């Protein structure tokens, strides 16, 4: 029976049962309906559906974050926002003494064997790029069972800083701290140099070389020549190593590489002054120098003037490929502008009375570029502002200035960066290692589209979407996963997994001999210990 016949049959039955009332109803339904009315009804229904689904979609991120377990900006036991100044886990499990310190018997065994020769290292790049090179140099010396000569810093890079290792790092501390891992000397003995009769043999290894490469290709040369120099040593060791070598990286980077007393004291002095003005502050590492922008291949709306200036700077790097600025921004490879950094921080919940310490070099565009950030955060400070004329002795040395910024940024309550550079990665790793101190790295890939569309939405929507974008980029403990990113940024092998007992740590520290890798729980002590030039009363105010 067809659909029309069934419908007419049912109407007839109803008419016989209920007489005139149902007969009239069926008569109405049996009247033909025009296509115009049908289409109008369907469009009306579709409109209601679109309106409803649009509302749900616009709020989907908010609801999902509230319902999802462990969402970063809501506590697990309610809807109240978490503290934007601290990570979810209190810094109780910072330095894992057992994980950071080598097995004593294994470490001692290294020094029992005779050295295979002297390893010289010529680093490359700015301060923090050289820092990664020095860290890896120690590990390579361990792999080769070589005696490491204090690394030579780069004097010929873009920064043109003639500072030597001992001008920036505490050489005695470096040598003594690593005594049970690698033998480090200040120079090759004269007797050895005389026997050689010629300059050391030099070679450059490929980037990200595996330990096997050093054993197979570098060790035979070292055994033959006795003195070997590895040049342009930056990122010349693989990221993924076995756990013992990764722990050695941590011991070098977070403990052995201690700045000289003048740098530590001066950096700490700036921290004290910042805390006198505000109980807590945010440090922003702002890489927006002309060379940084030129290298990135990005465009920031400055017209032909900007394009020509940055194109001229790019000529310094002959091997740089041609880049399409819009594609680089879409991929999240462009540093955030100062204005975008300010918008991100305000959207995350930092108020305009927050104190900022901005660590930067020469900002492209000068005051005009910085003005939007200063309007969002009037309490805007730099090392030049905080230190005044006291900074003059450091001004000729870019690496020492960078070291001062490093100290202040590492000590800050919150560290924020607008880029994915070496200092940002190393500081992020250090702050994770020292207890997951709040560290905000922009999710530039998602934020770029959001910034471009910010004028099409109200502030509450923009703020909600920024928080959603930044989930997983706020320095929370769960962001550290084995194998994620570069080890200098995610030092997973060196971060303890169990609750930290402070009394046990103190007992171990008191029973530990100074030459056997002394370590300190909190980053504050790394800079203050042996800093006798600082006034005790000032330090008490800080803590």
Helical region count? 25
Kindly estimate the percentage of residues that lie in beta strands according to DSSP: 5-15%
Q: What level of helicity do the residues show?
A: 40-55%
Average pLDDT number: 80
How would you sum up the major sheet?
A: 5 strands, parallel
Number of strands: 10
Shape: globular
Determine the structural class based on helices, strands and strand pairing.
alpha/beta
Low-confidence stretches: 1-31, 51-72, 74-80, 90-100, 102-112, 498-543
User: Strand sequence of the main sheet, in spatial order?
Assistant: 3-2-1-5-4
- Rg, please? 31 Å
For the terminal residues, how far apart are their CA atoms? 89 Å
Keywords:
543 residues; alpha/beta; 5-stranded parallel β-sheet; 25 helices; 10 strands; globular; disordered C terminus; O-fucosyltransferase family protein
Brief summary:
By secondary structure, the chain is α/β, with parallel strands linked by helices.
Protein architecture, described:
By secondary structure, the protein is an alpha/beta fold. The protein has helices at residues 3-18, 20-30, 35-67, 97-100, 104-112, 127-144, 165-168, 171-177, 190-196, 211-225, 243-256, 261-277, 290-296, 303-314, 325-330, 338-348, 366-376, 383-387, 398-411, 422-433, 444-452, 459-469, 502-510, 523-528, 536-542, and strands spanning 118-121, 147-149, 184-185, 201-203, 227-230, 282-286, 356-360, 380-381, 414-417, 439-440. α6 (127-144) crosses α11 (243-256), α13 (290-296) crosses α14 and α16 runs parallel beside α17. It is globular, with a radius of gyration of 31 Å. The termini are far apart. Residues 1-31, 51-72, 74-80, 90-100, 102-112 and 498-543 have low confidence and may be disordered. It comes from Solanum verrucosum. It holds the Pfam family O-FucT. GO terms for molecular function: glycosyltransferase activity. Belongs to the glycosyltransferase GT106 family.
């Amino acid at each position: 029976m067809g659909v029309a016949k069934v419908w007419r049959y049912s109407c007839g039955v109803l008419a016989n049962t209920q007489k005139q009332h149902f007969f009239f109803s069926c008569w109405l339904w049996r009247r033909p309906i025009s296509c115009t009315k049908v289409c109008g009804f369907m469009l009306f229904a579709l409109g209601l559906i679109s309106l409803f689904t649009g509302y749900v979609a616009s709020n989907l991120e908010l609801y999902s974050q509230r319902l999802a377990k462990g969402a970063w900006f809501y506590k697990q036991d309610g809807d109240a926002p978490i503290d934007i100044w601290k990570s979810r886990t209190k810094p109780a499990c910072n330095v894992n003494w057992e994980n950071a310190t080598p097995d004593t018997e294994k470490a001692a065994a290294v020094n029992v064997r005779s050295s295979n020769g002297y390893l010289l290292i010529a680093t490359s790049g700015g301060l923090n790029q050289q820092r990664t090179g020095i860290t890896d140099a120690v590990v390579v010396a361990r792999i080769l069972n070589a005696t490491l000569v204090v690394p030579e810093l780069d004097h010929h890079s873009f920064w043109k800083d003639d500072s030597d290792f001992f001008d920036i790092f505490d050489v005695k501390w470096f040598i003594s701290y690593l005594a049970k891992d690698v033998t480090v000397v200040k120079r090759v003995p004269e007797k050895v140099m005389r026997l050689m009769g010629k300059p050391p043999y030099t070679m450059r290894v490929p980037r990200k070389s595996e330990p096997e490469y050093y054993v197979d290709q570098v060790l035979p040369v070292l055994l033959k020549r006795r003195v070997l120099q590895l040049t342009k040593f930056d990122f010349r060791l693989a990221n993924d190593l076995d756990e013992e070598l990764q722990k050695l990286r941590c011991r070098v980077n977070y403990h052995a590489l201690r700045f000289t007393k003048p740098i530590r004291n001066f950096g700490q002095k700036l921290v004290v002054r910042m805390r006198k003005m505000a109980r807590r502050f945010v440090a922003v590492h702002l890489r927006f120098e002309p060379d940084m922008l030129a290298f990135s291949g990005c465009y920031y709306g400055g017209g032909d003037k900007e394009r020509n200036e940055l194109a001229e700077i790019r000529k310094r790097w002959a091997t740089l490929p041609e880049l399409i600025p819009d594609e680089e921004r879409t991929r999240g490879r462009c540093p955030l502008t100062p204005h975008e950094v300010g918008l991100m921080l305000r959207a995350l919940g930092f108020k305009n009375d927050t104190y900022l310490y901005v660590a930067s070099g020469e900002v492209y565009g000068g005051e005009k570029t910085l003005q939007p950030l200063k309007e969002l955060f009037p309490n805007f400070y730099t090392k030049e502002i905080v230190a005044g004329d006291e900074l003059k002795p450091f001004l000729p040395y870019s690496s020492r200035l960078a070291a001062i910024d490093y100290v202040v940024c590492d000590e800050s309550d919150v560290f924020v960066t607008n880029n994915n550079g070496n200092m940002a990665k190393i500081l992020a790793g250090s702050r994770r290692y020292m207890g997951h101190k709040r560290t905000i790295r922009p999710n530039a890939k998602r934020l770029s589209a959001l910034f471009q569309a910010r004028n099409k939405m109200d502030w509450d929507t923009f703020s909600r979407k920024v928080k959603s974008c930044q989930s997983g980029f706020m320095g929370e403990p769960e962001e550290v996963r084995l194998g994620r990113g570069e080890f200098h940024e995610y030092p997973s092998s060196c971060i303890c997994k169990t609750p930290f007992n402070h009394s046990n740590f103190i007992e171990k520290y008191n029973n530990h001999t100074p030459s056997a890798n002394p370590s300190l729980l909190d980053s504050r002590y790394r800079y203050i210990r042996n800093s006798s030039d600082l006034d005790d009363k000032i330090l008490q105010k800080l803590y």
